[in-house]
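To make the argument concrete, we let one protein speak, a sequence paired with a row of structure tokens, as a model reads it:
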Amino acid sequence: MQRHQQKQHVFLIILVLLHTMVCFNLKFTYNFALLINMMLLMKKSILGCNIIYLFILICIGIALPIKSQNNYKVKLTGTVYEYDHNNKRLPLEFAAVSIPEIALGTTSDENGRYILENVPTGKIRMQIQYLGKVSIDTLINVNKDLVLNFTMRNEDFKLKEVTVTATNSRSGKSTSSHISRSAMDHMQATSLYDVMSLMPGGISQNQDMSSAQQINIRQVSSSSGPEAPMNAMGTAIIRDGAPISNNANLSAMSPTVLSGTETPASLAGGASPAGGTDVRSISTENIESIQIVRGIPSVEYGDLTSGAVIINTKAGREPLRVKAKANPNIYQVSMGTGFELGKKKGALNVSADYAYNTNNPISSYQHYQRATTKLLYSNTFFNNKLRTNSSFDFIYGKDQRERNPDDEQTKTASEGRDIGFTLNTNGTWNINKGWLKTLRYVLSGTYMDKDSYYETVYSSATSPYSMTTTNGAVLSNFAGQHIYDANGNQITNFGPEDINHYAVYLPSSYLGHYEIDSREVNLFAKVTSSLFKASGHVNNRILIGADFRSDGNVGKGKTYDPSTPPYRSQYGHNSSFRPRNYKDIPFINQFGAYVEDNFKWSISGTHDLNIQAGVRYDHTSVVGGIFSPRVNASIDLIPNLLSLQGGYGIAAKMPSLLYLYPENAYFEYININELTNENIPESQRLFMTTTEVRQVDNSDLKIAQNHKAEVGFNLRVGKTNLNVIAYKERLKDGYVMSQTFNTFNTFIYNEYQRTENGIELSSSLPVLSTYAKPTNNLNIETKGLEFDLNIGRIDAIRTAFQINGSWMRTKSWRQGYSFYDNSEDAASARKPVAIYSQEGNASYKQQFVTTLRATHNIPRIGFVVTMTAQAIWQQSNWNTFGNDSIPVGYLALEDASVNMFPKGKYTTTQQVKDAGYGYMLNNVSHNNAIKESYSPYFCFNLNVTKEISNMLRVSFFANNMFRSYPRRESKRNPGSYIQLNNRFFFGLELSLTL
């Protein structure tokens, strides 16, 4: 089926490319273009769900005139200016001047001059951008050569129209939000995580860096389990054109050992290898703007399922800024400046910050530190044709839990330390020859050294452990010494590699200490060409590109003293642990290629039809390749008033190292244990174990896909703008560590005893061993409605109003089967393992949140105050259950064979008991079937910013300023209560500009 779909997508790509060539070739007539579209329609039955693409192609064909007319090309010139401190207008060098719709751009020279050639006539949208300046975005009707001069103003809080909230993207593109530098300053964001509260449905949180922070998009905030890590894993964090990858993260102790969870946790803080990037390490102080793609991303972006966070860092000249901020959890200091190096020598931007977090002064032994530094060099070459940015990023992060002086029992301590750097160079070459307008490139490399350790005193820890990694090895407590039975047969079994290894029986209590040395390497390269052709009222901007990424880990991996290994597994019989060298694991290599048409048809010169349609192909190690078609479209029903938009696409996230190259599973069986037998001299007491090694097979692993669809409208009346989006997403083949039929294996467990004749075999019994392996068992379905109403600024009261919100419901379920082993550890007590169907079992989460923001500003004195009223109208969760109390089969103890009961044979637990399978019955609770929900509650926040002269700015915030702490009684557990809302929280920031 999947191969058939891939063939469909290949055919679709060929048709799209052919159609694009037809549209570009002005010698073809309308009749030929229409013929091509008719041929596409004939393939309707083949393409199936891709009919939406055919509709797009038909629109393009209809748009072609009967005889294509040549668009006149004109030249735009002018000067970009700025105001100095004396309000004198001066030329501005290095300003980016562009016309994004036709992929045309340039940079102003030392005299502020710019030239744009080969500009088609008609309405165009020009953009002028510069670091620390208010971007200019204007619509111009071009019908001849024009001289256009622009004057840019500083982006500060003395502007009449100051933007301190997220703004929506334009129609016809991915549904996304834009966050400006002013918005980050006003809310005093410490890390990238803080800005997510500005999204529709985002819930305000108190700043806290005590634990790993991962970005979730369109995810219910209270989600637990594997849904949130999978969502974060599928959220791409892209900085300066290159992804910040978590693919090489392996900092989990033993993912294949059954642990009661489907997503392995990191050893000592930091990002989980089953989740996304820990964004605590991303300071906002050197960020110029952020774009958060919530909808269907352009095919330019791959290796994602949830969405993308696109970060543009500061580049160019900027005055020296020194900041200090503090709140009950965090204090932070930062600085940043940018300066020109001389005529035609470019500019250097330098920034650094340090942050320290401790949540509780009483528990000051647990804290997090972050230090970052960034150097970015920017310049233009070849008469401003090539603009480049080259940067060096340094990151230091430290999660630490020192030993609590009062903790004499467990003596727990841990530390996770990250030190790394990133080299990045990216640029745009403005070619502007024929169809080819620009060529963009990105090269990036990251090295991250992650050292972590964890230690604690274990109790009830008795279990066997040997140092061998050889399957079938039998070792005793006498290293290098063979043991023989009463008949002279050798019992032990080991080779030269295990000559110094021996078996130990761990004490009931010991101090365990283990470390992970993880050294992640991430390489990325990308090139994208932009082509443009205009024909009458139709514009086509084509993106064609490719990218390559390689992720690997060259660390020493997991290490520990074999006499004090990690704590025994409480979920898997006989499971054991072993060190693993990460250097032995191959790198993941992923190649992607994409083509996309950004089509615009100006119908009658007033109604615009915008379509962004493309397809992407990704191929990665082990799991192969996948096609990802995507489309976004919008049309102006009533010009400048009402437009409709919609889209559909497939986004795919490749498996990470954790899932692609799982570690082996180890099991330890005690053959004989005489260590407590006082009748035998202590020096002669024998302890012997057999080790079973299972190679974890993930050959059936598939690529996770998210099918995203949305529809909405945009209504604009004067300054008031309303955007509403309804969406539905279906993630299938999500990654979790779980059991399958293939993770069970029968092992013959030999037990010995000492008799007067010597060591003799007392029993030889089959037992079932099992482990967790990477699977595609996770499915998530999310649907919701997002809205954003921006009333704009009412000048009479100097106040702007914005209300946004989101209703969403998430359903998650597992495919495959679950297993229940009701056996004790002893070999003689082992039983067959029951098989349960997961059909009908599902988890639901629902949330409805609205946020009203009123922003009052007095430009003359640089004063801005924002009052935020957030209403959580609904938060609820519940489960549904299928037939989870009646087993559907069992795994035989003798050979791990699957034995399914005839469908419908057992319908009651009594029937199961009567058939002799009572031990297979699992005691299940359906308490979660009760819908846990809370009545509405509200939170009011305050943000104030005041410019004091041109040098000093003060910002203050207070969360939950009215100290509302509603308590709600649990419906599942009457008599127990939960306290809602953030605790009262406040912070202050001082910013000095020199």
